Fold this sequence. Notes:
This protein is mainly beta.
Amino acid sequence: MRDILGHFASGLTIITASTEGGPIGFTCQSFASLSLDPALVTFSPAKTSSTWPVIRESRKFCINVLPEEHRELSGKFARSGTDKFEGVRHTPSPLGSPVLDNALAWIDCELYEEYDGGDHTIVLGRVKAMEARKDAEPLLFIKGKYLRASALV
């Protein structure tokens, strides 16, 4: 199933939050817009994630959409057991979650709802603020590899 569904190209995001222990985050490929009214987005962390339960407790998070230049951050935030924010510049969103410097876009959310999704959790976030750059291209992922959107033009 992973091999077949890997033929679907997607963008990459890093979901971040501020906690008492400092900033945390994880790479997430399964992100989408869900509703305009109310403004909702969705993503699906694995149930094995050790980061999502900590973010859940804060009830707010920021979705950072990655530009081509953040390929290394995608890999860094996908690894467990490391200080993912070491050397990573960021500023607080209006809700206080980390916005990664030079993110292609960021979406500041409050936790709206969660649903069972098999080996993943389906998370709905209510959008509270957002912003996007116009001077960069998205980082794409397909068939287990990164793809630069600018290479398609």
